[in-house]
Design brief:
Length: 483
């Protein structure tokens, strides 16, 4: 333990400042300013080395948090990044984008603000890149076996990096024109600049992972070709079918899924021209869905110059403090203000949309009413009907599962009860030699889970091909998969 009195001497939790709203709305760069290393060390010293670090369980990767807090405090940054990379292939993604369930289970968090674990994580990896310590890890053996990883989101990338390092020939297939999955085309630039994906891909290419973009597996490469050319397959195809809102007027122009809108904005940040781009510029925007995807639509709409933005959520507004139903060390239900919410727009809770209204085939408004929860069901609040003008409606209500037709059904994989691909404790699907990782098997989730599952699936593939594996397996995802 670095400083036995750290948590007593430094009771304040400090985080980097966000850039002023007026300024950050003028560009697409990340919203946070740099964080001073001295402050970071002070924050790391607040870690109590509490004996039973609940943060380990809170983190799906089992990140060795107290160890690297201690190493940062002692200025042993190189050892720190080694401990971090031992459990996490891509701390630059989680350090920016993870909702940090580890912090929700931090023991200090029982009666003080939790340790700033996620900030220490991102600073460790950024410092390591700056110092040139993130070198390719070349495989020491070649197994002669080939693995196809389908999908290049965080699950596919983690599986590919682990399998390449274990000596297998790994090809990542991606149907989009660039690698990264939702990291690339879902998450906006202001949450994570895409150069951080490219920097990591450079390392993976040198290590030997091959990437093939613009290949829709199941269409451009048939299932027979896939099985013939590869000894094993990892399905990391995500959960890409957006939940729809089949109410009257849904067919009107101007109503789009969030994942029709966000990828186009991301493409423009890459310098692409998007003919007929869906933009919020000068429009009255209504986002249906109060979660992170909705918040990303909000920040994007504001940067594009929307006239107004409302974000609707059917659930009631959560409490300001941790709800009694989610006690420590669980992830708390509570009201959160993301950087996008700070930038503008109106959040409307307990609201249900019942009809889209239009003129000449284009949406002009929606009709909605307030709801209350009675016995776990939503009930309309009589007399609460209202109409709100809209010329762009974005549906951000989550995802219902992976697409089946072109690839999954042809492969013959089985499905679980929530429409996801069924898998066992080794992340194997019902088809021998075909494994699954990330949202495709778990359902819509988080980057940290996708990386954890990619690592676990890689160990499952290695065991399948070699009869044993030395690849580490995050324990928690395996337990969850077995359930
Ligand atoms: C807008 C948005 C914002 C989010 N923000 C956050 C956040 O801030 N923090 C967080 O932790 N999580 C966030 N998430 C969730 C997170 O992005 C996902 O949980 C994670 O990306 C899942 O990773 P994955 O690798 O399983 O799938 P994905 O990232 O979805 O990648 C799947 C890839 O497979 C490809 N693919 C599918 N079928 C084929 C095929 N037949 N052939 C070739 N390629 C194929 C797809 O094109 C895609 O690139 C967000 C999600 C969305 C939609
Ligand atoms: S990956 Fe997420 S849960 Fe794990 S240590 Fe980092 S911020 Fe915490």
């Amino acid at each position: 333990m670095a400083d036995p009195r750290g948590f007593l001497n430094h009771t304040e939790r400090e985080l980097p400042d966000r850039r002023p709203v007026d300024l950050r709305l003028m560009d697409w760069k990340e919203v946070y300013t740099e964080f001073d290393k001295g402050h970071l060390k002070t924050q790391a010293s607040r870690c109590m080395d509490c004996g039973i670090p609940f943060c380990h369980n809170g983190c799906p990767l089992g990140n060795l948090i107290p160890e690297w807090n201690d190493l940062v405090y002692k200025d042993r940054w190189r050892d720190g990044i080694e401990r971090l990379h031992a459990t996490n292939n891509f701390p630059e993604f989680t350090g920016r984008l993870c909702p940090a369930p580890c912090e929700a289970s931090c023991v200090l968090g029982i009666n003080q603000p939790a340790v700033t674990i996620k900030q220490v994580e991102v600073e460790l990896i950024e410092n390591a890149f700056d110092e040139g310590w993130v070198a390719p890890v070349m495989p020491t053996v070649k197994t002669g076996k080939n693995v196809a990883v389908i999908g290049s989101g965080p699950a596919g990338l983690a599986a590919a990096q682990q399998l390449t390092r274990a000596g297998h020939g790994v090809t990542v297939f991606e149907r989009a024109d660039r690698i990264g999955g939702l990291l690339r085309y879902g998450i906006p630039e202001f949450k994570m600049e895409k150069r951080f994906i490219d920097r990591r891909l450079e390392q993976m290419r040198i290590e030997g992972t091959e990437f093939r973009t613009n290949v829709n597996v199941g269409v451009d490469v048939t299932v027979d070709e896939l099985r013939e050319d590869f000894d094993a397959v990892v399905l990391a195809v995500g959960s890409t079918i957006g939940r729809d809102l089949p109410i009257p007027g849904r067919e009107l122009d101007g109503i789009h899924q969030a994942m029709e809108f966000l990828p186009q904005a991301n493409r423009v940040q890459h310098g692409d021209t998007v003919p007929g781009q869906i933009v919020a510029t000068g429009k009255k925007v209504i986002i249906i869905g109060g979660g992170d995807t909705g918040a990303d639509c909000l920040g994007t709409s504001l940067r594009q110059g929307a006239e107004s933005v409302h974000q609707f959520e059917i659930m009631p507004r959560p409490p300001m403090e941790r709800a009694g139903s989610t006690p420590w060390p669980t992830y708390p239900l509570m009201y959160r203000v993301s950087s996008a919410h700070e930038e503008g727009g109106d959040r409307v809770f307990s609201v249900n949309t019942e009809e889209f209204v239009g003129e000449n085939g284009k949406v002009t408004a929606l009709k909605a009413h307030e709801v209350t929860m009675v016995g776990g069901r939503f009930e309309k609040v009589e007399g609460s009907d209202f109409t709100l003008e809209a010329d762009l409606v974005l549906l951000a209500m989550g995802f219902v599962g992976p697409e089946r037709e072109d690839l999954l059904d042809k492969l013959g994989v089985g499905y679980g009860d929530r429409g996801v691909i069924a898998r066992d404790g080794d992340f194997a699907s019902t088809v021998p030699g075909v494994f699954v990782a990330g949202d495709a098997g778990r359902g819509q989730s988080l980057i940290v889970w996708a990386i954890a599952e990619g690592r676990a699936a890689a160990a499952g593939v290695d065991k399948f091909l070699e009869g044993h594996t030395v690849l580490p397996v995050p324990i928690y995802p395996t337990q969850v998969a077995q359930r």
